[in-house]
Predict the 3D structure of the following.
Amino acid sequence: QKEVEQDPGPLSVPEGAIVSLNCTYSNSAFQYFMWYRQYSRKGPELLMYTYSSGNKEDGRFTAQVDKSSKYISLFIRDSQPSDSATYLCAMEAGNNRKLIWGLGTSLAVNP
Amino acid sequence: NAGVTQTPKFRVLKTGQSMTLLCAQDMNHEYMYWYRQDPGMGLRLIHYSVGEGTTAKGEVPDGYNVSRLKKQNFLLGLESAAPSQTSVYFCASSPRPGTGGYEQYFGPGTRLTVT
């Protein structure tokens, strides 16, 4: 079993939909949780960063961490075609500066 | 600020040839990383460095060497390229503990094809 599981999709939604992207993990020591967005043929860019449990909101994006269920989510409200990308989750236990990555979920937002 | 830059952007090698990929960052970050990204395999850590003059092995280090002679630069070398090393290579950097979080900042990538 991989330490971080992420459904690769692809996920296809109409413009304006609410998108939910998820990762599950097995290591209860993880404390730092990140979401990256990667456009085709580009490098990953940091989208959201949360520490421990709870929610964090940034514009149309909300990151949610449920440590009791070992489950993290990224919600995108009012999705736009420009949100079409691969979304990768990453996490770290806070002890070695090496991130553990999900495989990424491919999202297409159709106009 | 340019952030993290990588050269070259593209390269085609023949089996057995050698090359060096250069990563540079202008954010004064202590930690630097080299990843490869392959379809269905995600991002895999090749080597990393926790400071100038240090290097350490990641998940898939075989066939690669690295050097960090200057804090801002991290070099990835392929001594004898193999077709299995055909991939997209990403460099990333991260700030020192206590001065920032654990997030990593990525370069644009190098697409390498080995024939």
